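seq as requested:
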Amino acid sequence: MPKIKIPKSSPSIDMTPMVDLAFLLVTFFMLSASFRSSEPVEVDVPSSISDKIIPENVLLVSIDKGGRVFFNMSDPEARRELVTNMIGKYKINLTQEQIDKFTYMTTFGCTMQELPQYLDLDAEKRKSVNTKGIPLDSLNNQLQDWIYYGNIAALNTGKTNYEEAKLNGEAPEMNDFKPKFILRVDGKAVYVHAQNVINVFRDLKLNNLNFVTSMEMAPL
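struct tokens:
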């Protein structure tokens, strides 16, 4: 009886499900990603071998290479409380729309008197505005007020978030919700500019100040 030969054929894989899965993943990441807003100041920070991650609930002070000072806060609700206290102190009128813009704005560096006009600009125009930064001289230390009221607002929102976490059945640490103070200084900035900002934190007795640097590998 003759031997039956089974025809040989190379195996094939249907890639259609893989392509569908890839597009689903791309769509998911596009819809769930939060894009970082562009900053109005470029700071080229020096390198470091520290791997400490910047936490949430942050008050960030930046100094560019020209010595201009900029301010930012990470928590939107704290920003809203902060700007409300600042306009009350400086008697500046802001509309509800301007307050909403400030709540979700990124880093800024202008005087309180310039703030209403600054908020009326769109994000791209803010990047091109040549401001002098936030004043911190002895006669007009607006940076001190931003940090002072920012700390109060961040403590309030941090306490609220801590209580909400406890109600959700979590076991949080209160220290994780307290505000963290970050100083980011351009590597080409004159040291005296950083010293002036450090003195502002010291005058407010806020000594838990952290410095932002870029990462480099630790020496072997």
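The first strand starts at residue 47 and ends at 48.
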